[in-house]
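From the shared-data thread, chain only:
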Amino acid sequence: MRFIDLHTHTDRSDGSTPPEDLVRLAAALNLQALAISDHDTLAGFDAAGPAASECGLELICAVELSTRPGGQREEGKRQRSVHVLGYWLVSPPTAEFRQWLEGQQASRRQRNLDLIAKLQNMGVSIALEDAEVYGRNQVGRPHIARVLREKGYVSSLQEAFDIYLGDEAKAAVERDEPTIEEGIRKIVEGGGMPSLAHPVRLPQGGADLAVLVEQLVSAGLVGIEVFHSEHSAADCREYAALAQQFDLIPTGGTDFHGDNKPGVHLGSGVDGNVRLPYSFLGQMRELCSARGK
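Structure, as tokens:
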């Protein structure tokens, strides 16, 4: 049986692996299909095309949008981002969607500048250029975390997030992100299928998560990530039940980031907990086509 991975990142966002190398690794692992879902950019997918053709690997266009919850937020506290995956299984993304993503890149660049400035004010000797060594067209917090580790401010990437970079850490910076509803709408308008990413990371669970999912379905949500490296077997059952309850398309992937998440392996996740057959993608595509997305 041949497998797939529908949630991966390259060095064009916050992964460590160049797109071409990711494709070759997927082919070496005998994967049949790969979705590159970099944060707020299609640059990794675009760059991987020639290598995928050369290797005979089916390359799926995807993106992972960073969005924020709507409504009131607690003053002085950064809202936790909610990630929405977009998949283009039937037709490519529109030019308008690609143009909108460019605006999201500008927002990320400004956040990085503000984050570096905040770290410098805290006495941390770091420059954006230090992190740009690791991030190609986009610098993410994992790249900044690597610099903090190399300069001796922390002993691990996780410590960098715990102390400086996490949503509630010392140097947390609010970013001008779209709302969840806007992110979902933009994916749908761009010809894609929106799926709620790694719901295990959301503060809601149980009945509260069901209420949130129902609200997002009303906003146009089509899928939910049932399988993910951070999901336990019980989590997968819960999210599969939500998919059935709200007629959502199950999605899944490892969330591979290369060296930036060394415990997560391409095509298999953590200790083999994400092994999706090619038929899983076929089912997604059939359901997606039936809905006209």
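The chain has two domains: 3-92+180-290, 105-165.
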